[in-house]
Structure prediction request, 524 residues.
Amino acid sequence: MSAVSSILVIGAGQAAAVAVATLRDQGYQGRITVVGDEAHAPYERPPLSKAVLAAVEAEEPGISVKEEDFFSARDIDLRLGTEVVSLNPVAGQALLSDGSAVAYDRCLLATGGTARQLPGLSPDAPQVHYLRTLDDARRLRNALRKARSAVIIGAGFLGLEIASTARGMGVDVSIVETASRVLARVVPDAFSTWLQARVAASGATLYLGQSINDLQLPADAVRVSLSDGSVLDADLVVVAVGLTPATDLARSAGLQLNAANGGIEVDTQCRSSDPRIFAAGDCTSQHHEGHGALRLESWQNANEQARIAACAMLDADAPPAAFPWFWTDQFECNIQMLGLPRAGLQYVLRGGMDPADASPKFIMLGLEGSIPRHALAVNAGGDLRALRPVLERGLEVDAAGFRDTSATMKAYAKALLASAVG
Amino acid sequence: MANWIKIAQVGQVDEDESLAIEVDGKQLALHHTEGEYFVTDNVCTHQYALLSDGYIEDGCVECPLHQAQFDLRTGKAMCAPATVDIQTYEVKTEGEDILVAL
Prediction:
């Protein structure tokens, strides 16, 4: 393959920042151009629904992925507030909204996505909020400071995090969800039940299994009518019903998109259907053994795919992707997931999941036979970390031994690993 | 002159384990790995969490909240999401006592 001397990164979020850092760390000295439509240099999104949302303006935490002078110090041409208006994969050239053109030998699509919108809830309405960007978070923060009440539509991770933060700010919160339980797609029943009790204890009200019959947006207010006849009146509404991957450029460039999840299809090296174009982060769809094509929206996946894509663009070997890991901080709990949920897992519990417990600590381990595939930890990150090699290697676990809290998780995991070696 | 303060006894912290200690109002962690003791700040520089609840591997302690890693010898932040190092402190053992220099 001919030498690579010009790399274009489209998007300026977590994946973009990690990719360009990896390119330079790999010794690549050619041109790097990063084009992002937001005004901000790459920042971490996880705090947007938590520390950034809860902060008073003057004390907003720094969330930049890289220090301020990183891009200039590493000779990276960072063009913010600029959009790529078209991508020509044959010519290897992109046209930007400022009228300039950028030619590339390799291109990385790190375009992320946008908050999925609901009809009748235009983000232009002052009392309607979506949360994807730093500007969204600041706008919502200002509104929550003045609000007495909020309706949150969607009880996924983001909706629940926003609900938790809003409760912490003293706002009355109602959460509306079409599924019959929270986080229905990713956690077992018992976990949903536990978390729902935790949500209720915070003073927030959950409306589960509800569709929205009617929506009114009178001045400075919202009125949401639910299928069970409930009518919710509030000062604002936050819609958190998932992400639409940003794939317009990929589509117009003729790249293969996944029909089911809409993501840009990439192989294990994060290469798209065009050999010179790669993709990383929330905009991608990738095959996962035992799960099929998945679009993983996580901080870790953005980092891992960016690192792998950057190496592949330079034809360098990358260490394999880390085992899937995800966290959420809500209702005074740190909740972590290791591995991916799949149908038919039997969950065993270590520790106690009394919803009234002020500082709960437990792990639920999802077993396929005796092989652990998925783990959920509440305030037990250190223990989950000890268990990670057991899941990575698919070692057999005995449920009784796992439950036995007379041995530490570290000791238990060590013993399993030691017996697997022998 | 270093001010040596007794913080624990030899054998009190198992291999690859950590102990939370408070000295002079400072939250510190005593770590034991590969036969050596290390003392660091106990609070992660990324977000409030105690490193003594974390995980020790390859000379680093990993935060239990978001998996930031810190080098036990130097305090250097080794990976995201942490970008700020933690402070480390000199440690010595005298007989059965473990002491830290503050």
In short: Residues 34 and 42 of chain B are 20 Å apart (CA to CA). The radius of gyration of chain B is 13 Å. The beta strands of chain B are 4-9, 17-23, 26-33, 36-41, 55-57, 60-62, 69-71, 88-89, 91-94, 97-101. The first strand of chain B starts at residue 4 and ends at 9.
